[in-house]
Specification:
Elements lengths: L1 H23 L9 E9 L2 E12 L2 E3 L2 H7 L3 E5 L4 E5 L14 E11 L4 E7 L10 E14 L2 E5 L9 E6 L5 E7 L1
Parallel strand pairs: 8-11
Antiparallel strand pairs: 1-2, 2-3, 4-5, 6-7, 6-10, 7-8, 8-9, 10-11
């Protein structure tokens, strides 16, 4: 009896393996491609794609994640829907008060570009924590300009006195993110 069960299992496995091999042959196409070392240049920087890009049918194929980074944006993968949302800007995580972060509104009074410090006039409400008027801005600060339905990233050098801003400060009270709404 045990021999028959073992033979049945082996026969089933063999049939399944042959079935898989036969029907999977149609899922593959053999193509001739020419791999190239390409350099992507864009607002987001320079990316060397050593052996990651290739030509096929007079078209260049490159990893979409690297193309988005070179453009200065970000891609968000939704695995459940099998879709990628592409933004032309890099967003930042919301303020997390559980990590000691603080959100504040205000207007830039002056900027010291060399030492990366802002002097702000803070707008206070019932939920605000009063902050020092001079704040240090982190080197990797994420700055977003938001106008109508569009957003774009700015550099620290793009800020001006008189800009009305929202700030996210980390637990050391350094500015990690700035949003300007016009």
């Amino acid at each position: 009896m045990k021999k028959r069960i073992l033979c049945f299992i082996m026969l089933f496995y063999l049939i399944f393996a042959l079935y898989t091999m036969v029907f999977s042959q149609n899922n593959y196409n053999k193509i001739d491609v020419s791999f190239k070392d390409i350099v992507l240049k864009g607002q987001g920087g320079i990316y060397n794609l050593h052996g990651e890009t290739f030509y096929y049918n007079n078209k260049l194929y490159a990893p979409v994640s690297n193309v988005i980074k070179a453009l200065g944006g970000e891609g968000i993968l939704n695995k459940e829907e099998n879709e990628i949302t592409i933004r032309n800007y890099k967003d930042f995580p919301e303020c997390n008060s559980l990590k000691g972060e603080v959100f504040a509104y205000g207007m830039i009074m002056s900027i010291d570009y060399q030492s990366r410090k802002l002097e702000i006039e803070q707008y206070l409400d019932d939920n605000s924590i009063e902050l020092p008027s001079k704040l240090e801005v982190k080197k990797d600060v994420n700055i977003i300009l938001e106008r109508n339905d569009k957003k774009m990233n700015l550099d620290f050098a793009d800020l001006k006195a008189g800009d009305r801003i929202g700030l996210i400060l980390d637990k050391e009270k350094n500015v990690r993110a700035i949003i300007l709404s016009k």
